[in-house]
Write a structure and sequence with these properties.
The protein is of the alpha+beta class. It is built from 14 helices and 11 strands. This is WYL domain-containing protein.
């Protein structure tokens, strides 16, 4: 067993007995008694309240409430942790190897009845999401550590396909997983403002000797959401969008992560939204095209023109392609 596993085993044995000697611990774990002393010293240094009683009936025991605190989880807690690990791993969690080790350790120290139930629940839930490649996973680890240690990063960042990578210095404030993509949010030294960067577009990354102070109560999550959701505090900048169509299609449309926040009024066959003009010129037309003829845009005219332009361009593009 590794050092961490042996220390956990010692703690478990002390908890499981009213009192136990170093010799008994050494015999049960088949390690040298001096190793037991070192591990107990390390546990005490980490804050575990281990009491050592001397004398003929002496030994080690845990102090008060710590002895009553659970060192294991019940079945529902174990199931929840393993299911959560499945989501994290599929989302490209940067420390997946350590997470797998933690799950394996959780299974190792549970009883056989719980383990059988865990396997049944584990088989009943799957998560499907695009996986990060090895380079992106490495960058995610670097960024997460830099966020925690307040270290400024130097990176070569490619803004879009076909563009040349630019050198940026970034004070990383946080990582966000948004719609199967990872973003690092922080202060960009080049633009002198807070920006978000897609981790999969980072080509090179290294630490600098500079450090920074993270703004108090800053939320990377809220920063990302503020850039994509309608700003209800500025109603004058919002444009009315009315869409009719089949009830099921409108149900799905109104439940979308973006349009659900922009919904103003809904009847059986019509939905009224208020969206920012920027959305009409970027992602909204493409989102609506995926519904085909099940919906119809009634207003505004600029959105109808955008839909016409996009569909005509697609028509021309594929019309000119040879067909065997």
């Amino acid at each position: 067993m590794s050092k961490a596993d042996q220390m956990l085993a010692i703690l478990w044995l002390i908890k499981s007995h009213k009192q136990i000697t170093a010799k008994q611990l050494a015999e049960k774990l088949e390690i040298h008694i001096r190793t037991v002393y070192r591990y107990i010293d390390a546990l005490c240094a980490s804050g575990v309240p281990i009491i050592s009683d001397s004398g003929h009936h002496g030994g080690y025991r845990l102090l008060g409430q710590f002895n009553e605190a659970p060192l294991v989880f019940d079945l529902d807690e174990q199931k929840a942790l393993i299911h959560a690990a499945s989501f994290a791993l599929e989302a490209g969690y940067p420390f997946g190897e350590k997470l797998n080790q933690a799950v394996a350790k959780l299974k190792l120290y549970t009883n056989q009845t719980q383990l059988a139930q865990i396997h049944l629940h584990e088989q009943g839930l799957d998560v499907i999401s695009p996986q990060a490649d090895a380079a992106e996973a490495s960058f995610l680890q670097e960024v997460e550590v830099a966020v925690a240690q307040r270290i400024t990063l130097s990176m070569h960042y490619q803004k879009g396909y076909g563009t040349v990578a630019e050198t940026r210095h970034l004070d990383p404030y946080g990582l966000v997983c948004w719609k199967s993509k990872w973003y690092v949010v922080g202060h960009c030294h080049l633009r002198k403002e807070i920006r978000s960067f897609r981790v999969d577009r980072i080509r090179e990354m290294s630490r600098t000797d500079m450090t920074f102070e993270r703004p108090t109560d800053f939320s990377a999550r809220q920063f990302i959401l503020a850039g994509v959701l309608p700003d209800s505090d500025k109603p004058g900048e919002l444009i009315s969008v009315k869409i009719t169509g089949r009830e099921q299609a409108l149900d799905d449309l109104c439940g979308h992560w973006f349009l659900s926040h922009a919904l103003v009024e809904r009847s059986q066959y019509e939905a009224h939204f208020q969206v920012q003009e920027k959305a009409i010129h970027t992602h909204l037309p493409y989102q609506l095209l995926s519904y085909g003829g099940t919906i119809q845009v009634k207003e505004p005219q600029m959105l109808i023109k955008m839909l016409r332009e996009i569909t005509l361009n697609l028509h021309q593009h594929y019309l000119l392609m040879p067909i065997d």
